[in-house]
Task: inverse folding
């Protein structure tokens, strides 16, 4: 995990090898590190990000130097988590304007929180120009979020190419059993949207092999079966999916507590 945020926050600065930073002078870096130490480590981080002191300390730090990108990112984070997306994006845009280190984080927030999918694709493609292949944010490769964004834009063939390419890359580099169940699931979704139900069913099965009782994969596999004409088997699997969901088996990403992920089943809408 690249970032860890606790409600009563002890927060660690992200450290990634070979990560791109917009260069600043050594004198500027020392001054900004001092501001971060005063207003984050010994200020905002001693409080919940849901309380006024968090933002008050950060605003005081920005009053000292409005170009400290990390302060803008820390200002943005709780705004997104409380669904104030426009304000969050304004702050995160400022972070990126001062340091493109935060560009892939912005792409993630655009994809999962703010739902700015075209912007997310553009940001991740920009990241790929200066990051090594296979780079990740929030435990997943850029291609997962690019693929999800294409799905949300109904560009299903682009989603399929991107997500299948991710599975193929993982198999080439690490072996066929390497891929994360979520990568497999969303690749299955791309095939489902393209009405390639046999392939989608196989992929949902692979996701379930890695994450048994994964209710969202069970639901879409059941739906594919019904669309193929096997209504009884499909309905039974969807019933199993609901039971597993009721037991808490769904997408279990850290940020799922704040936002439903695309294609995560909303059972209130299932008939």
Result:
């Amino acid at each position: 995990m690249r970032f860890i945020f606790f409600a009563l926050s002890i927060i660690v600065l992200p450290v990634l090898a070979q990560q791109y930073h917009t260069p600043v002078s050594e004198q500027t870096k020392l001054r900004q590190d001092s501001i971060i130490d005063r207003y984050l480590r010994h200020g905002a981080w001693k409080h919940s990000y849901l309380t006024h002191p968090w933002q008050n300390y950060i605003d005081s730090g920005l009053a000292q130097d409005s170009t400290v990108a990390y302060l803008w990112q820390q200002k943005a984070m709780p705004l997104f988590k409380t669904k104030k997306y426009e304000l969050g994006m304004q702050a995160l845009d400022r972070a990126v304007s001062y340091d493109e280190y935060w560009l892939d984080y912005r792409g993630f927030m655009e994809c999962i929180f703010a739902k700015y999918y075209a912007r997310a694709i553009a940001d991740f493609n920009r990241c790929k120009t200066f990051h090594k292949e296979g780079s990740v944010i929030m435990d997943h490769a850029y291609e997962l979020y690019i693929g999800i964004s294409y799905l949300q834009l109904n560009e299903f063939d682009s989603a399929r190419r991107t997500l299948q390419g991710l599975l193929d890359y993982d198999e080439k580099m690490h072996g066929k059993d390497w891929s994360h169940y979520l990568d497999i699931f969303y690749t299955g979704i791309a095939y489902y949207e393209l009405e390639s139900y046999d392939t989608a069913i196989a992929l949902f099965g692979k996701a379930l092999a890695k994450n048994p009782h994964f209710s969202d994969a069970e639901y879409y596999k059941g739906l594919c079966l019904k669309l193929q004409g096997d209504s009884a088997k499909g309905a039974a699997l969807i019933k199993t999916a609901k039971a597993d969901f009721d037991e808490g088996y769904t997408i279990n990403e850290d940020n799922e507590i704040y936002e439903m992920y695309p294609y995560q089943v909303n059972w209130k809408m299932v008939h």
